[in-house]
Amino acid sequence: MSTTRTKEDFAALISKLSAFVDNEVIPSEDLRNAHDALAMRELTSTLRQRAVTQGLGNPRRPVDEGGLGLSWEECCSYLEQAGRSFLGPGALQCAAPGQPDIAALDRLANDGQRQRYLEPLMRGEKYSCFAMTEPAPGVGSDPRMLLTQARRHGQGWVIDGHKWFISGAMHADFAIVVARTEAGVSWFLVDRDNPGFEVVRDIATMEPFEIGGGHGEIRLNACQVGEDALIGQEGKGLDYAQIRLEGARLFHCMRFIGLASRAMGMAQDYAGRRESQGMRLAEHQMVQAMVADAHIDLYAARLMTLDVARKLDAGESIRHHSSMAKVFVSEAVNRVADSAVQICGALGVSEDLPLSMILRMLRPFRIYDGASEVHRSAIAKRALSKGLAA
Q: How far apart, in whole angstroms, are the C-alpha atoms of residue 168 and residue 189?
């Protein structure tokens, strides 16, 4: 995937990206736009055009298709910089659900699906969502609980089901719908304007800046699709989900490390000028301890993410390692952001600074793409059943 570039060329690219985020993306943030999906979409669209003109396009898209062709390892630095802003991932074409959907479809889509869905998605002309999660008693963390059904009908399929918390659903042009068939779990492409595809509502969450298109509730009511809607092989959907999720988890880790690092940077600046009990906050050992722990957490988070990225570049299985990285990073960035808020006191919980909003952006990562508890269980089961050394 990666194009040939020198270390100096890559360093120059990251420097250019950092300047773009500092000078154009972060200044475009407006905390008054919190929960305003339309304003966010317009802002990111404008910033995306500016990014492309500066040669800061889709990081994983091949160079001959207008992207940067970055390896997973290179993406660690690129996405950390992009992730420092609420608007960065959308502006730099590395936000979920689009990026993991692109990665999955790039491996699984046939020629017709590539032309109709994947290529417009890569060009930013269409938006996607991944419709798997269902209300109880349907699928959540356990894929065996999938209730949505797809049955053969004539020259195609009829899908019935109920989905919710579907990221990106509110402005997606199409969905990748996960449903159960006779052969097992399967994936289908469903257009938003399909008469049987109903977007019920946008489910409000604690995230103030949802750039991916909300978290929609969807009903599939006798939704008819053609034979060509099936992605890959019938019954292989759980294998495909793992392909998609591994990359998605890694991208989240990269982006959120950047957001947590920005939070601690703001806290350190505040601690350096705010006085308490006759000395600057930065001179108090308890504040120093929080800063030190944050740096330790982020150092470890970067190294774990980098190691998994290198394994992915090498074509190795990352299932076990990506689970460990996802648990650690999701919890580490929350600790860092929480400490940043604590250091800044009342200002930290206010909206005069974006710290409280950063904390709200990071908290859901302990649930998204597999809750920490589910990952811990899977990690332990693999270690115990395979006798893996710690």
A: 15
pTM of the predicted model as reported, rounded to 2 decimal places: 0.92
Token pair of 132 as six digits: 């798997």
Residue 390 in tokens: 């710690």
Cα–Cα–Cα angle for 44, 47, 52, nearest 5°?
120
Task: Scan for tokens 């719908």, then name that residue.
Answer: 177
Give the CA angle between residues 47, 49, 51 to the nearest 5°.
Answer: 70
Residue listed under structure tokens 């893996």: 388
Q: H or E element: which one contains 267?
A: helix 237-273
**Residue 316 neighbours by CB distance under 10 Å:** 11
Residues in CB range of 54: below 8 A, 6 or more apart: 16, 20
Show the domains of the chain with their CATH numbers: 7-95 (1.10.540.10), 128-236 (2.40.110.10), 238-386 (1.20.140.10)
Closest by alpha carbon to 243, among 254, 231, 255? 231
Per DSSP, 92 falls in state: T
Amino acid at 132: M
Rounded Cα gap, residues 138 and 26, in angstroms: 39
SS3 179: strand
Q: Tell me the pLDDT tens digit for each residue of 170-188.
A: 989 999 999 999 999 999 9
Average pLDDT score over residue span 42-60: 90
Q: Say if residues 325 and 304 touch (Cβ distance below 8 Å).
A: yes
